[in-house]
Amino acid sequence: MTVLAEDAVLTMTINGEADLLHVRSMLRAEAQRAGLTLTAETKLVTAGSELARNIVRYSTHGQGVASVERLHRNGRHGVRVEFRDDGPGIADVEQVMRDGYTTGDSLGLGLPGSRRLVDEFSIDSAVGRGTTVVIAQWSR
Amino acid sequence: MSDDIPILRLGPNLMVTLQGNLEDTTVEHIERAVTHEVARTRATGLLIDVSGLSIVDSFVARVIARLVAMVRLLGARSTIVGIQPAVAITLVELGVPMSHVRTALNAEQGMALLREPTGR
After folding, report:
1. R_g over Cα of chain B
2. Which end of chain B is more exposed for a tag (fewer CB within 10 A), N or C?
């Protein structure tokens, strides 16, 4: 794991399961810094854990990058996290966003569940090009 | 992590405490250790204390549900105690199916549930 701070962006490489712990810690710290409620913080950390695990499980060599950005808009603070990998990509994004779809032995809730936990969610993926998921959570 | 899994014996029941920021492999290790301990001690009840978990994602929830199913096959019923409110809200929105798992607010109420003659 490496953490590079450049202005308001923190970048962390994900190389294996142990990095899930680092992602959770980083997101918790950023959520608290942004003044999120405990519920919003817990949802953000949980979504981040799901998305980081997806990278470890499904991307090439289990590698990817998580980048955190601090958001400010109309007096509210937020946390934006981008999870990016150069893995095999997803052929049918609509399919993986459905509850219960899985290629492994998981519950198939990682992506659709994460979307329900955060204020903003977007996914961009193409076969052979990798996958990028961006989530954001705001203070009230 | 091998011998430092906090499993407490309380009469015919066992209590295991999950706490901190857990790696997936640690969670699965605890699952195996508790299953073996239930079989070894012939426990009839298992309390799973998750009050020390500030997040429960779909992986951890799935392992807990699997543990409950396994010890049920061994003749012990389980109760999960101490789910933090923010974690409960998150689990419901995440969509993790936990309705078949018995829960109680805290260890004391969980023990009371395990003492009830009926139920599973």
Report:
1. 13
2. C
Domain assignment present for B1: no
Distance from CA of A22 to the nearest CA of B (A): 9
User: Of A46, A61, A47, which is closest to residue A13 (Cα–Cα)?
Assistant: A61
Q: Which residues contact A35 (CB under 8 A, 6 or more apart)?
A: A77, A139
Would residue B2 count as lying in a domain?
A: no
Residue B80 in any domain: the answer is: yes
Nearest CA in chain A to B25: A17
Is A42 within 8 Å of B55 when comparing Cβ atoms? Answer: yes
ipTM (interface pTM): 0.90
CB pairs under 8 A between A and B: 72
| 3-state DSSP percent of chain A in helix, strand and coil, to 5 | 35, 35, 30
Strands A9-14 and A64-73: antiparallel
Domain range for residue A121?
Answer: 3-138
Query: Which residues of chain B make contact with A106, given a CB cutoff of 8 A?
Result: 58-59, 62
CA-atom Rg of chain A in angstroms: 14
